[in-house]
Structure of MerR family transcriptional regulator:
Amino acid sequence: MSSAQTTGPAHFDDDDYPAYTMGRAAEMLGTTPGFLRSLDEAKLITPQRSEGGHRRYSRYQLRLAARARELVDQGTALEAACRIIILEDQLAEALRINEEMRERREEQPPVG
């Protein structure tokens, strides 16, 4: 086995790599391409485009879309679901940054 086969391409572990076509993404989520287009229109996810102009989705975007579908299935309006997900994502990022800052502060020697 070659080293390329044992280690694989770097994008295999990249959550932001646009690996999924619209059809495949919709199939994986159990939804329609129209639902994915509506998430793009609501500015929740903006898929990258292939050279031919086709939408391509990353695993991260599919997680957001799955969360949106979950909320919509529970009766939340699409726009509200998108806003909830954006706020959840911002909160998670703020908590991550806060934790990093706390760790850095704990690593520094006390002043005085």
About this structure: The domain at 11-107 is CATH 1.10.1660.10 (Multidrug-efflux Transporter Regulator; Chain: A; Domain 2). The CA atoms of residues 42 and 79 lie 7 Å apart.
